Amino acid sequence: MLTDAFMKSNIFQWSDWSTSEPVVSQKQQQTFDKPSKSNIRSRGNVTLRWNTTGITVAGIMNQRGTASNLLDWPMGLAIDSSNTLYVAEYSNNRVQKFLSGMSNGTTVAEQANGVQNRTSTTLNFPVGVTVDSSGNIYVADSGNSRVQLWASGASSGSTVAGNGTSSNQLNMTYGVALDSSSNTLYVADYGNHRIMAYSSGASSGSLVAGGQGIGLNKTQLYNPSTIYFDPPSNSLIIANRYAHNIVRRTLSDTQWTLIAGSTNGTNGVSSTLLNSPFGMTLDPMGNVYVADTSNHRIQLFMTGELTGITIAGTTGVRGNDSNLFWAPYAVALDSQLNLYVADRNNNRIQKFQRY
To answer: Average per-residue pLDDT in the chain?
Structure first.
């Protein structure tokens, strides 16, 4: 009997690809593998297929420390146009920069020894990080409830959000995203269950999503952890952590729409559910990659589909093998769509090569 995926397609094509690797084919016509391998989809002109065995590109498994080749609870990732990797280390209170192919990082925000404080040169439990085209680094400094801007090459940061005034007060900043066309900064205000927007140079922010208390309705958020600005749709993609879903908030609308997970707060291990998703990102085709943290897996949701495909990790299984995670917190893609995962409790960044 054909799967539902087959029933929705008028065109079928057999493949010789191994069942051991997740394969997603994006072509102009629907393309599927044999019925037993219904995790193959299509919609563009790019084949998406990754090794399921990760390569450690930063950190050393089960080792914690402040040395340049070690990490301590990596929770945020960013990759610039040169495929340079930036890692926000929660417990080391710093952001490390790793050039492509290098296992030793350099500290680009905070101090290398991980001192925790609220000065212009220190951070306190940084979570999210993003980098603009000029190499300026924006850090969600969660323990200080602020966002710090570290200009390219600077030895200290400046506060661009969260200075404590009534319209700029934040409560645990977790995620940051930048609209480069308008130079607007978006902040996931985790403890206040809302997303705030800050225009360049503004002393206060404006509410763009949530802010109606904890809840599951379409005007509320529940601990938003990561955000992504999607220019083609002029929308924010939000990891709505304890609502166990990923939602889209178009800036011209007043309510969000569901991308992945449930609308009623249900968590689970099925291909349509998530469990405390913390991080996510998009590829140029609009597909969404989710760090399904408590399920210890990375889920891919093709544009317009509510059923996810596990492309890394094993559902519900935590571990330190090269094909497993222990609480993946962030995901990022480089220019070749290789997948990077912040494997927090294993203190490492894993790379899954696309081929």
So the answer is: 89
